[in-house]
Amino acid sequence: MTNFDQMRGKAKEAAGKMTGNDSMANKGRAEQSKGKAKETAKKAKETARETARDVADRARDSYNQ
């Protein structure tokens, strides 16, 4: 799952390498890292939400028995 920050960062890195602009290449790598961090945070949020639902379902099932 690639997000916009990762794609834009990859393009900046490639452009920086092609033109010999190390600053642009570094900024591109930084944007890719930012995109990966956002992706990881989103996955963690989804996992936490699923876990909370599971706990709530188990508690409700336990109460109803």
UniProtKB/TrEMBL annotation:
Residues 3-49 form the CsbD-like domain. Pfam families: CsbD. InterPro entries: CsbD (IPR008462), YjbJ_sf (IPR036629). Residues 1-65 are annotated as: Disordered. Residues 28-65 have a biased composition (Basic and acidic residues). Belongs to the UPF0337 (CsbD) family. This is CsbD-like domain-containing protein.
